Amino acid sequence: MNIADTYTGHVEPGGDAARRTLDGLTITKLSVGPMDNNAYLLVCRAENEALLIDAANDPERISDLIGHGPDRPALRTVVTTHQHADHWQALGAVAGANGANTAAHPLDAEPLPVPPDFLVEHGDTLKVGEVTLEVIHLRGHTPGSIALLYRDPSGHPHLFTGDSLFPGGPGRTTNPEDFSSLMDDLESRVFGALPDDTWIYPGHGDDTTLGDERPKLGEWRERGW
Description:
six-stranded mixed β-sheet, alpha/beta, 5 helices, eight-stranded mixed β-sheet
C-alpha cells in the first residue's frame, strides 16, 4: 500500500493512506468501504505496538496498512467508536488475523459481530505501547459512542471522534433529545475541555480542528442538527 507522508487530513476512497508522524506516535488514516469510512492506525514509535480505530471495511487493505514484513507493528487493540454496522465490517477478520483485543463502550457492545474483550467508559484509558489514550463518551449519535483523545506532550491534542463530530456539525441524531444530549457532551467534554488547536479525526471524510468549528456551535444549536 502507498502511504503518503504529507498529512492534510484528506484521503480518497480506495486511494493512498496518509501518515502523520509525532514524537511518540504515528497516525495513519485510510478510507475504506463504500461509505468512505476512516480507519486510523496508531503506532507507538518506542514499542512498535499498534491500535486500530474502527475496522470499518476492507480487511485486506487494513492488513496491507499494518504491513506484512517482520518489522510490522504488533496490533494489540481494535477500538470500535460506535455500534453502526459501517464501522465494524472488518472487525472480526482484522482482530482474528492479528490476535488483537477489541474494545467498545458497553452501551454499543451488543450489536458488534464479536463481543468486546474490554468495555470502556467515560474517563477510562487505553494504552498503545507507551502512549495513553483517554476515552470520552459522547451520548447521542448512538448511546455508546466514544471518542479517543491523545494529549501529545510535544504538541496539540488529537481527538478521534467517530461519527460524533465532523467538519460542519455533530453527527446525525434521530430525535431532539439525542441531539441535545450530543451537543451538551460536545460542548462540555470536547469544546469546553480542549483548546482550539485540537485536531479532529472524524469517522468519515476530512479532518478539522476545534478552532475551525467552535464559532459554529450556536448555529448548530439553532438549526437542530
